[in-house]
Structures are given as structure tokens and as C-alpha cells.
Specification:
heterodimer; A: about 150 residues; alpha+beta; globular; B: six-stranded mixed beta sheet; 4 helices
Chain lengths: ~150, ~110
């Protein structure tokens, strides 16, 4: 289990994403899959700042990363903000024209598309959001390509 | 994230490289809005060297597309690939903003 505790502030986003990338690089994820997971993780992080802590009271955010016995990776987000359940949010209408389109809800859409399982629970004063991600078969060496630049 | 600008035909071509995330995207939005405010009506965003984009990056692109449309201009996207292409497809933005395989085809396409 790897645990990282940060203040839920946008300036800490790069720290979190670097930590996540390192965790994923130690496992056989492709570069494309790593980026998809990173996008989902960014959206969850930003939503906690925006909705759980409402921008003005950036409390702590505890991030845990671990591998389960059934070949999955779980990423858990724990905050002490107001109750916020991203799994209950409706998806945006992606058919609207350019003038009508809004950004709201896209983050949750990306999270749903890019992780294999998503669960939320409120426990005491904490929001607990968990990503569950299937681990690909194979070993790390096979996924290490020449496209490691990012 | 890095933005490089060039003029080609009647277009301003902006090449965006690196990452468009919640930290870096406001810079692109500011740049787009400032170019449009100066009167630019034809913009191509070349995303060949963009490695990563989140909803914050889409917000910046959408802000530019909306602003230029109000001024009867056009914003085109070129060279979407990998996860960047996927993000545009999942969000449906690839159907509201014209996308081209190459910067050259974006420049050549009729209005």
C-alpha cells in the first residue's frame, strides 16, 4: 500500500500525478493506459477541490494506491469535505452544438470511461472514492517502448 | 506545456506541446482569447506534440472556439492522436470542432 497525503490544492496536482505515474510504471500498463488513468485521477482530484472543499477551504486529501489479489489496482481518494458523490452525477449531453456545450460533467464522464470500476461511500465525515483498474497481463519489460518521453 | 505560433496562409497556427491539465490549461485559454481579441479569425491548433489533455484542456479549447465563432471566425484542430484523440471523441468535441489529420489539410480545407 502506497499512501500520499496532500492538501487538496491545484498546485499539488503535479505531485499527485507524478506519484501515480510512478506507481503505474512499476506495473505492466501501456503508456496509453497510464495516461487514461492519469486523466481519470486528475478529474477526481479537481472535483474534490471544486465540490467537496468548494475551492475556499482546501483540506487534506489522502490518496492510497494498492494492488489487489485479483489482479486489479485500486486508487482511493479520501477527503473530509462536504458529501460529494461523483457516481450520482449525470453525464453531459455530448450531442449539443458548440454554443450550447458546457464543460460541467465532463470530468465524471472521463472517470467512468477510463476506469474499470468506480465506487463511492460516505464514512463519518469522509468521502471515499475508489477507482478499480484491471491490470494487464504480462510483465513490465514488454510494455516499455520507445515512447517513454512523457 | 508550450505554445509556438506561426502564420501560414491566412491562418495563425498554434502548436501546443506537452500537457494540458488543470494547472497549465488557463495559459492556453488566455493565449487563445488574446489572439482572438486582436482580431484573428482563422486559427489552427496543431496538437501533434500534445501528450495529455484533461477536461481542463478541453475547457480552454472550447472557450477559444466559442469566442472565435462569435466573431464569425473558425478554429480548426489538427493531428489528434492517442489519448488526446480519445478525449476529443469521448467528449463529442470532435464533432463540434472541425478536426483534420494534418495541419496542412486544416489550412487547405474550404470554409
Amino acid at each position: 500500500m502506497n499512501v500520499l497525503t496532500l492538501k487538496a490544492d491545484i498546485v499539488n496536482l503535479p505531485v499527485f500525478l507524478r506519484f501515480l505515474t510512478q506507481f503505474l510504471k512499476e506495473r505492466p500498463f501501456s503508456l496509453q493506459r497510464r495516461k487514461e488513468i492519469e486523466i481519470a485521477a486528475e478529474e477526481a482530484f479537481v472535483n474534490i477541490i471544486r465540490y467537496a472543499y468548494k475551492f475556499d477551504k482546501p483540506g487534506d486529501l489522502q490518496l492510497s494506491f494498492h494492488e489487489t489479489a485479483n489482479k486489479r489496482v485500486e486508487i482511493e481518494f479520501r477527503d473530509r469535505g462536504v458529501p460529494f458523490d461523483p457516481t450520482s452525477m449525470t453525464e453531459p449531453d455530448t450531442e449539443l452544438s458548440i454554443s450550447e456545450r458546457k464543460i460541467g460533467g465532463l470530468g465524471v464522464l472521463f472517470i467512468r470511461r477510463m476506469v474499470d470500476g468506480l465506487s463511492y461511500r460516505r464514512q463519518g465525515d469522509q468521502n471515499i472514492l475508489t477507482f478499480s483498474i484491471l491490470m494487464p497481463e504480462g510483465d513490465i519489460a514488454n510494455t516499455r517502448g520507445k515512447t517513454e518521453a512523457s | 506545456m508550450e505554445i509556438t505560433k506561426r502564420k501560414e496562409d491566412n491562418f495563425s497556427v498554434l502548436s501546443v506541446s506537452g500537457r494540458l491539465d488543470a494547472v497549465t490549461s488557463p495559459e492556453l485559454e488566455k493565449e487563445l482569447l488574446s489572439i482572438i481579441a486582436e482580431g484573428e479569425k482563422s486559427l489552427v491548433l496543431d496538437l501533434a506534440k500534445l501528450d495529455y489533455i484533461s477536461s481542463a484542456g478541453l475547457r480552454a479549447v472550447l472557450a477559444g472556439a466559442k469566442k472565435i465563432k462569435q466573431q464569425q471566425g473558425t478554429l480548426r484542430l489538427a493531428c489528434l492522436k492517442g489519448v488526446v484523440k480519445e478525449v476529443f471523441e469521448v467528449s463529442g468535441f470532435d464533432s463540434i470542432i472541425p478536426c483534420f489529420e494534418t495541419a496542412e489539410s486544416a489550412l487547405k480545407a474550404g470554409s
